[in-house]
Write a structure and sequence with these properties.
Blueprint (H helix, E strand, L loop, with lengths): L2 E6 L7 H15 L3 E6 L22 H6 L8 H9 L2 E7 L7 H10 L21 E7 L16 H4 L1 H9 L3 E2 L3 E3 L8 H23 L36
Parallel strand pairs: 1-2, 1-3, 3-4, 4-5, 4-6
Bound molecules: flavin mononucleotide.
Length: 246
């Protein structure tokens, strides 16, 4: 039985993103998975990493503080959810070409140094190897604006830092699901068409969840494709413009 963690990063319970996350939960349950749901806003999650979360003396060094024990009471159960799950699904809207602050803070605080990753356990030796992550992301921009040559930036690159944080911890990264052109400014027939399209997305999510274990993965370079200085070896495949050939 798969263990699925669904994380929602949206402040409004009646939003499309909230409905989409609910559809992921229902789809995973229908597929026979054990499911945990983490609604970061409903939890009142504090995304700002700072010394006040820890019992430390002296200056606040975030990586060292995260290694110290106990892990803060608000992040400990969320880190435990990540350790429990073998499939993690993140639902968020694109906000300013990246994730909402609450999700960035979830990465900052819940990917606990010394627990979810450390210098000896990252990328191919990451603690989360064998687990899969799926990003489900909505944009206000249209598909054309969010694709190759699009003026709002290629959505695959805009989500890459979130995906790579999870890859750093060892996750396999599934090809994301994007829903474009989602916003509340349409009227009349255009609004009705958007609502119909979003209903189709929600209906299709059960199939996405049922197929998660076999979903196409994004390619990343293996550790062996970098030299001792951490530079890509000549001839290694170039998968993403974030890791350049020099
Ligand atoms: C603060 C903020 C920043 C936004 N930035 C972007 C952006 O960079 N690119 C984009 O396509 N849409 C952007 N949007 C639009 C949201 O992505 C869109 O409203 C959302 O995906 C709709 O989903 P929802 O109905 O669940 O909120 C932004 C919206 C807000 C509130």
């Amino acid at each position: 039985m798969a263990r699925v963690l669904v994380v929602l990063a949206h402040p409004e319970p009646t939003s499309f993103n909230a409905a989409w996350a609910d559809a992921s939960v229902a789809g995973a349950e229908a597929a026979g998975s054990a499911v945990r749901f983490c609604d970061l806003h409903r939890l009142g999650f504090d995304p700002v990493e700072r010394g006040a979360h820890y019992r430390i003396d002296g200056p606040f060094d975030p990586l060292k503080a995260q290694e110290s024990r106990p892990v803060p009471p608000d992040t400990a159960p969320l880190a435990a959810d990540l350790e429990w799950a073998d499939q993690v699904v993140l639902h968020y809207p694109m906000w300013w070409f990246g994730p909402p602050a609450v999700l960035k803070g979830w990465l900052d605080r819940v990917l606990v140094h010394g627990r979810l990753h450390d210098v000896d356990h990252r990328f191919d030796t990451g603690r989360c190897r064998g687990k899969r992550a799926l990003l489900c992301v909505s944009t206000g921009a249209t598909a054309a604006e969010s694709g190759p040559g699009g003026k709002e930036g290629d959505a695959r690159l805009l989500v890459w830092p979130v995906a790579y944080a999870l890859r750093y911890c060892g996750f396999d990264i599934c090809a994301p699901v994007f829903v474009h052109g989602v916003h509340g400014y349409l009227e009349g027939a255009e609004k009705a068409a958007l609502e119909a399209r979003l209903r189709q997305v929600l209906a299709a999510q059960a199939g996405v969840m049922a197929g998660l274990a076999a979903r196409e993965l994004w390619p990343f370079n293996a550790d062996t494709e970098f030299d001792a200085d951490g530079r890509m070896r000549p001839g290694a495949p170039v998968h993403w413009p974030f890791i350049t050939t020099g």
